[in-house]
Write a structure and sequence with these properties.
By secondary structure, this protein is an alpha+beta fold. It is built from 5 helices and 8 strands; from the N terminus they run βαβαβββαβββαα. It is 27% helix and 43% strand.
């Protein structure tokens, strides 16, 4: 199964945006804290032109806290790109009791830490639609909207049309968002840290 998502920048105060959604009948269904460490074997090769390639070959050490419970995972995201845009994504997750030991294992295999991504998530839902407000350290507040349908046999044009529909759906809610709906957290943080953008 291949899913799609969009991620947009929130251009207004998060409390104001959440209040707008509450007035439209959306409910806060969960909050979580996520801490990802991206590990790569290609850090020394990093430049403006190969961020996508390097991220495609990263493993994530993920620490997820939801409602007082904690899950630790090793994650690989198999993303399909066309012209720098993510067309679909398939995740492989392996539960892991000890992320410190996992990091040590990957370091023995010549992986090193590329970037850390830390964020608090507030998920608002109504009628089966979930909007995840992500307060990302050193990046700002984003909104992620995942489409849970299977896009495995869809054309690029169908996927792009669906992403535009999802973007317009958020705009119609009266939330002030940026024009880019392909924001990539790790990518942007890598640019800020290593390439000074």
């Amino acid at each position: 199964m291949e899913q799609i998502e969009i991620t947009v920048k929130l251009n207004e105060n998060i409390e104001k945006a959440l209040k707008k959604l509450e007035e439209l009948g959306y409910k806060n269904i969960r909050e979580s804290d996520i801490y990802d460490i991206y590990m790569t074997q290609s850090k020394k090769e990093l430049n403006d032109n190969n961020i996508q390639y390097i991220l495609s070959n990263c493993v994530l050490l993920r620490d997820l806290k939801v409602r007082g419970q904690e899950w630790k995972k090793i994650t690989y995201k198999n993303k399909k790109y066309v012209d720098g845009q993510v067309i679909s994504e398939k995740k492989v997750n392996v539960n892991c009791d000890d992320l410190k030991k996992a990091k040590e294992l990957f370091e023995y295999l010549k992986f090193e830490k590329l970037i850390e991504v830390k964020y608090h998530v507030i998920v608002m839902a109504k009628d089966g639609i979930e909007l995840a407000f992500q307060e990302v350290e050193n990046l700002g507040t984003l909104i992620e909207y995942e489409n849970l349908n299977d896009f495995c046999n869809k054309t690029i044009e169908e996927i792009q049309a669906e992403k535009m529909r999802m973007y317009n759906f958020i705009k119609k809610l009266g939330i002030n968002i940026g024009k880019d709906f392909e924001i990539k957290k790790a990518w942007n943080l890598i640019e800020k840290k290593y390439l000074k953008k």
